[in-house]
Design goal:
Structural class: alpha+beta
Low-confidence stretches: 2-20
Mean pLDDT: 78
Helix content: 10-25%
Number of strands: 11
Length: 170
């Protein structure tokens, strides 16, 4: 019986990971009040037009804590708050090279929670209009993780729509 249960869990996990699109839509949709949406402005001043910045999105599990050594909390944020911290996440950055520190926290409301015990630092280069998507993936050792980088530009219209919704709701 235990073998069947383990096999079923492994199959379900494989199917979930196999279905990932590696873009902004991997994060859970807001589903009313269940999940949150975030848009951080990772530079000083007023938000710039979306076509003049680069955007980092995550799978909803990755939580960026530092941008170029500055706490994410020091930047302007637009958000809708849901019951769970996971959700659709955007970080708007000026074109150039940036150093991001991040951890992950999985609290999708299924009764199970997991989180990283250490942060991962990632250097990314981003251009105007580019969308870099980060998703949690297993690392090289047992119990390690890293952030997989993918091209997230295929869902730029949805990112733009969410950004307009968030900035108009202030």
């Amino acid at each position: 019986m235990k073998r069947k249960a383990i096999a079923a869990l492994l199959l379900a996990q494989t199917m979930l990971f196999g279905c990932a699109s590696y873009n902004y839509t991997d994060a859970p949709p807001t589903l009313g009040v269940l999940y949150s949406k975030y848009a951080y402005i990772g530079y000083t001043g007023e938000p710039k037009p979306i076509e003049d910045v680069g955007i980092v999105t995550t799978d909803g599990l990755i939580k960026i804590s530092l941008v170029n050594g500055q706490p994410i909390s020091s930047y302007k944020v637009f958000k809708t708050s849901g019951m769970y911290s996971g959700g659709r996440y955007q970080l708007h950055l000026l074109p150039g090279t940036h150093v991001l520190s991040m951890g992950f926290h999985d609290d999708r409301g299924n009764g199970s929670r997991s989180w990283s015990t250490s942060d991962v630092t990632r250097t990314i280069s981003i251009a105007k209009g580019q969308v870099v998507h980060l998703s949690v993936t297993g690392g090289s050792g047992r119990g390690t993780w890293t952030a997989k980088e993918s091209d997230g530009s295929s869902v730029l219209p949805l990112i733009t729509s969410d950004f307009k919704e968030l900035t108009n709701a202030k």
